């Protein structure tokens, strides 16, 4: 396979940030142009911490400007996933504005978002140590073995995720390299909930101390592995960079999650309405810890991501997906999402009339990397592409749970969005999934009694 870039690959990123990247100054103010770099946060299991994004601007002269933008700012531009890697122009305040600098305005100049992902994506893990913290027992062979093509190695994992469209052949690791400053030098850069300056400094210093030993431009991505935490989060983004504390690189589910961000993927969410997007148990890009397999060497193992994410990266071909947007009553056979080479569907999109929103219909089974999911069922998400976490799990019984019966749609059960005349019913089990019936428009009203298959033991749930 050929090597391809996703959003902004490191082959381009290293040239954007030059051999010895440094933070830019905003002293003169005015408009500047560059490439928007976005990183997403992920807390350790059991740690209550808000979901954050950090943004920087890669300027054309090789410098980087750390920006004081948050997820709400990016949501106004169509969401972080839509603008990550985009060409933008930024209006800077005169007189500096501090670091990170908060722009007066930000305007996209060219689309970022989610290009198709296929080919080889060689990563290098740079093992960088704070000099005031002891080295861990894990050495080079541990980090090199993480890229193996056997489960749960990352080459095997990304091949399974992408139906063999993506691999990480050629990935390796190097280190330990000693950082030029103690840990507190970096953590003191955190300003409130803005981590952009610290992330930039860790990237600059880690790649800087490794550059004499590693040809960085020959890799599409960089996993920065540190010997101690640097706040409550691991991070991923920038079109090919992750920042991993020890609890991150000791659990390949976290590496998979952060590499998903490096591909440009946002979080998904359940529908409980809180500020925690790490609570959808069906997606490695949300709750990567729960309902996951484990490995004796590499800890918690990543499950699959949801069909919406696979689709926006180009991993679901036209023959395995369809869209319902016109009135009628239709029947579809949908196979479970881990199954490669199926002749049936992996994804049905049901458009919500008069909006850019839609429902996704997929099947999940307890097999492969999904081997510890809550069950074998049809799973629904309501997707708003402009939202911070576009895909929200549909569970009308207990939205905060996500692993209960309300999230798992089984034969005889129907989801009824009466306001939009959408009815999604699970008819029966097939060899590798479920047969699903969808009534759209006036057709949905013909089956709106809650017992479409004639059994009073089944139930329907109506969207509010």
Distance between the termini: 47 Å
Helix fraction by DSSP (H/I, runs of at least 4): 10-25%
CATH class of the largest domain: Alpha Beta
Q: What is the rounded Rg?
A: 23 Å
Quick check: average pLDDT?
Answer: 88
* Sheet with the most strands, sense and barrel status: 10 strands, mixed
What is the overall silhouette? globular
CATH architecture of the largest domain: 3-Layer(aba) Sandwich
What is the count of β-strands? 24
Low-confidence stretches: 1-12, 14-22, 449-464
Structural class: alpha+beta
CATH topology of the largest domain: Collagenase (Catalytic Domain)
Total discrete domains: 3
Instruction: Name the beta content range.
Output: 25-35%
Number of helices: 10
